[in-house]
Amino acid sequence: MLSLLTRQAAAAVRVLILLTLVLGVAYPLAVWGVSRIPGLHHRAEGSVLTVDGRPAGSSLIGIDPVPADPAADPFFHTRPSATAEDPLGIGPADPSVSGGSNKGGFSETLLGAVEQRRALIAAREGVDAARVPADAVTASASGLDPNISPAYAALQVPRVARVTGLSEADVARLVAQHTDGRPLGFLGEPGVNVPELNLAVHAAASMMRP
């Protein structure tokens, strides 16, 4: 009996040592090594965006910016978030509790919020409510989607150009530069990265100032 217990204990120790080396040493080192491959390093570090060498956000996290003066709003806006303090989902989300609203398509609360968002966005952009695209009034599953549709970006171009002093053509060019195509050429839909676009607009507007 003692001999059997000794053999079993020895086998258990050998397995423990082996798994520790494989899963606790080799695997983490392999993952770290892959993250150092050129082209992957930036993503592995969180896709951090910087301005003058300082972190200014992430291209993977869309947090809706709040203008100091709503009447002179220079920002492109993300999709609404169910975690925003504003009851309509407008304004910055709380990334620590990101998530969707969990409301279904027949929810009167959700439908009411969508119509209110549509009216607010139409007023902000100075357009008819029928022109407001669906992604402008519906939250993503995470509530922190950094991308919006090209249609929603195009809707915001005139306002951003007017407030920043850039021409609409220049702002539209920046939108095109920060629009990603369909993954693999056929999956999903094109998307405009809002965090990257806002930084690009800010940089272009700063160059115009004396």
TrEMBL record:
Annotated localization:
Cell membrane
Task: State which residue ranges cross the membrane.
Answer: 12-34
Sorted keywords for this record are: ATP-binding, Cell membrane, Ion transport, Membrane, Nucleotide-binding, Potassium, Potassium transport, Transmembrane, Transmembrane helix, Transport
Molecular-function annotations in GO: ATP binding; P-type potassium transmembrane transporter activity
The UniProt entry's GO CC annotations, sorted and at most eight, read: plasma membrane
Q: Which Pfam families match?
A: KdpC
Q: How is the protein disposed in the membrane?
A: Single-pass membrane protein
Q: Keyword ATP-binding, does the record have it?
A: yes
**Assembly and partners?**
The system is composed of three essential subunits: KdpA, KdpB and KdpC.
Family of this protein: Belongs to the KdpC family.
Name the job this protein performs.
Part of the high-affinity ATP-driven potassium transport (or Kdp) system, which catalyzes the hydrolysis of ATP coupled with the electrogenic transport of potassium into the cytoplasm. This subunit acts as a catalytic chaperone that increases the ATP-binding affinity of the ATP-hydrolyzing subunit KdpB by the formation of a transient KdpB/KdpC/ATP ternary complex.
Official protein name in the record:
Potassium-transporting ATPase KdpC subunit
**Origin organism of this chain?**
Pseudonocardia asaccharolytica DSM 44247 = NBRC 16224
